[in-house]
Write a structure and sequence with these properties.
single chain; 234 residues; mainly alpha; 2 domains
Length: 234
Amino acid sequence: MSFLNPENGNMSNLQRNLLRIMRIFLLISGIYILIFGGANGAERIFGLLILIALAIIHAPSIFTRNKIKAIPVEIELLLLAMVLFELVGGDALGLYVKLPHYDNFMHFMLPLYIALIGMMLVYSMYYYGKLKASMASMAVIIVIMTIGLGGILEMGEYTYDTYLSQGFLGQITGNTQMQGSPTQNAIDDTMNDLFTDTAGAIVGALIGVMLIRRNEKKGEHWKVAEGIKNMGME
């Protein structure tokens, strides 16, 4: 298996091609943005972050020479989508500013992705007997944890706006304010983000439950559990 030629016996042709396209696109985007900048030519930091994100996603298999297998394709596709919509679209291309509701879109989609990945992880633990809980309990736990991550993100945005945006870090990121917008003050924006985070988390958890139930009705199990288990050392 290589970065540009993903190989996995459990991977469909659609998944393989989609994974290859996203990897190549993000690699080229990261290099281009690092060299030339993004929408205003001053977003090179986000090109670097894109490349770092790609390195982190593939670090286990690269640095252990595939003794630790790559993460399951379902999880990698979600992580790559997060990098695409956040670092490429929202930050480098400035869609947070250019599109009025892009912030709402991201505060819905990122928690959805996180909650869905969370459901994959807890289901794997459940399937292999490491966790005893009902499906509803697992979903509620994932939703609460995802909302908590959203709260941590809002605290980070407040910290950046209050203490960092006018300093060295602010110069790198263009002194952009994270909280508030032309139509909302900071408090309304924060609360709207948290409500949207909650909605995304619920939808992500429900999608996970739906996928689990669909496989159970077929007398099967969610195959992602095998991929998560196989991430261990060979």
